[in-house]
């Protein structure tokens, strides 16, 4: 195939509007005319297979009602609102409503235990939490240990200590004018999970414009999304910043459709989902894809509409594209997940440049990376091994909108971060002559003696 990478990378430039917000870009602008308002925003499928369809009009009305309710509850610009919700339409409606009133959304996984939830809620000083039955019980156990958490709004839960989502929304008007936002205004406070989380919570603050920063990687990974009729489903946790910024919000930004599935997903349930919905794009964490690959060994699945599959992680599963070609009849794109930055900066795009099996891909347009070697003699070598560094600016000197504003309320971590032109990481990688990145065989930097 032809390699269009150099042309795409060299001709790309950021355009940042003077005003920008997640709520306006992903919701309200799609109801400014009647035709767009009837587009399908979300297909919600419950564990029994029942389908509930949300148009952009329904999404906007729900967001507006909740935004009015949040205002009446006293939530103001800059307040932190925790979202402990499963994979459901209300999860996105809550995030966009929080954004509409100028507050900062703090998505937290339903899989977190009580102690981990308490650490994050106290660190964020969240005033309100919006919960459902999937993760709400753990939060209710530790509410009394979170001094700032004075309000809890619950979906489909009956508890004397919470306010009912349905009751609150029933009392509100269906129109709300979102607060005007600058692209640099804070939007999301994200806490990493897994090894990157560490022993104490370190929340990264992301601006409204971080969504724009995610678009080159999203478009490329999904082979030039959007295409007519695109519907995307992901198995990734909806509360993760990587899922929000690299998958969910970009789909809504382009006015296309998401599929939401409640409950545990098995290979057989995914097969039923592929039969039930016109899914065109799938996204899996690497570990989940490996599990499905074992479950579906020897099968051939040919969904009528499927055109793209993305697998995300730190390293690509072995034989990724070959297995996807055998199983689904299409190749897969691997997208590298940086351990601290939420936005995907590196990955593949099979329709635009050749894949090299086993590699992490190349830097997506708009993002600059380099490898720094502890040996000064190796510095500046474009085909070497070293720690991954990310530039704060693109090739034209414009700020990279994908990067975090900094760590939340931790001066020891943020003091020097905004000044450094390159952000360093502990990722030890190899770069070949064509700019493809590879997991380094020796994962321990060393300096010759």
Quick take:
It comes from Corticimicrobacter populi. Belongs to the ATP-dependent AMP-binding enzyme family. The chain is of the alpha/beta class and 449 residues long.
CATH superfamily of the domain at 19-33 and 55-208: ANL, N-terminal domain
> What's the CATH architecture name of the domain at 19-33 and 55-208?
3-Layer(aba) Sandwich
* N-C termini distance: 45 Å
CATH fold field value of the domain at 19-33 and 55-208 = Rossmann fold
Task: Enumerate the strands of the largest sheet in spatial order, edge to edge or round the barrel.
Answer: 2-1-11-10-12-13-14-15-16
Number of strands: 21
Helical proportion?
A: 25-40%
Number of helices: 14
- Name of the CATH first level of the domain at 19-33 and 55-208: Alpha Beta
Average residue-wise pLDDT: 90
Largest beta-sheet characterization: 9 strands, mixed
Regions with little confidence, pLDDT below 50 for 5+ residues: 443-449
Rounded to an integer in angstroms, the radius of gyration calculated over CA atoms is 22 Å
Shape: globular
């Amino acid at each position: 195939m032809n390699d269009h990478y150099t042309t795409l990378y060299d001709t790309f430039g950021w355009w940042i509007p003077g005003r920008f917000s997640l709520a306006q870009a992903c919701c309200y602008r799609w109801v400014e005319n009647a035709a767009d308002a009837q587009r399908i925003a979300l297909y919600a499928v419950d564990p029994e297979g029942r389908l509930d369809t949300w148009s952009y009009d329904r999404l906007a009305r729900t967001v507006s009602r909740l935004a009015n309710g949040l205002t009446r509850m006293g939530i103001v610009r800059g307040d932190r609102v925790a979202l402990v919700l499963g994979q459901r339409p209300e999860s996105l409606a809550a995030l966009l409503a929080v954004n509409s009133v100028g507050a900062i959304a703090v998505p937290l996984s339903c899989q977190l235990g009580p102690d981990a939830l308490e650490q994050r809620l106290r660190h964020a000083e969240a005033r309100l939490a919006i919960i459902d039955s999937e993760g709400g019980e753990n939060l209710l156990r530790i509410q009394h240990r979170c001094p700032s958490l004075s309000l809890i709004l619950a979906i489909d839960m009956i508890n004397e200590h919470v306010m009912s989502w349905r009751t609150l929304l029933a009392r509100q008007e269906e129109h709300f004018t979102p607060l005007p936002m600058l692209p640099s205004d804070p939007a999301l406070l994200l806490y990493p999970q897994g090894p990157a989380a560490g022993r104490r919570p370190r929340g990264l603050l992301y601006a409204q414009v971080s969504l724009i920063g995610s678009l080159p990687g999203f478009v490329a990974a999904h082979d030039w999304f959007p295409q007519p009729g695109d519907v995307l489903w992901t198995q990734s946790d909806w509360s993760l910043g990587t899922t929000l910024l690299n998958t969910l919000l970009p789909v809504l930004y382009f006015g296309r459709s998401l599929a939401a599935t409640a409950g545990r997903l098995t290979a057989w349930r995914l097969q039923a989902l592929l039969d039930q919905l016109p899914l065109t794009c799938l996204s899996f964490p690497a570990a989940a894809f490996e599990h499905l690959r074992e479950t579906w060994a020897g099968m051939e699945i040919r969904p009528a509409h499927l055109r793209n599959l993305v697998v995300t992680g730190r390293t690509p599963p072995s034989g990724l594209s070959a297995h996807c070609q055998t199983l689904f009849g299409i190749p897969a794109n691997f997208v590298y997940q940086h351990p601290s930055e939420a936005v995907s900066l590196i990955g593949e795009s099979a329709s635009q440049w050749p894949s090299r099996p086993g590699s992490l891909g190349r830097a997506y347009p708009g993002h600059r990376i380099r490898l720094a070697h502890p040996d000064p003699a190796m510095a500046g070598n474009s085909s070497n091994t070293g720690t991954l560094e990310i530039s704060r600016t693109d090739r034209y000197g414009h700020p990279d909108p994908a990067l975090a504003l900094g760590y939340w309320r931790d001066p020891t971590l943020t003091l020097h971060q905004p000044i450094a032109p390159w952000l360093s990481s502990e990722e030890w990688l190899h770069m070949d002559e064509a700019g493809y990145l590879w997991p380094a065989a020796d994962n321990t930097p060393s300096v010759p003696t």
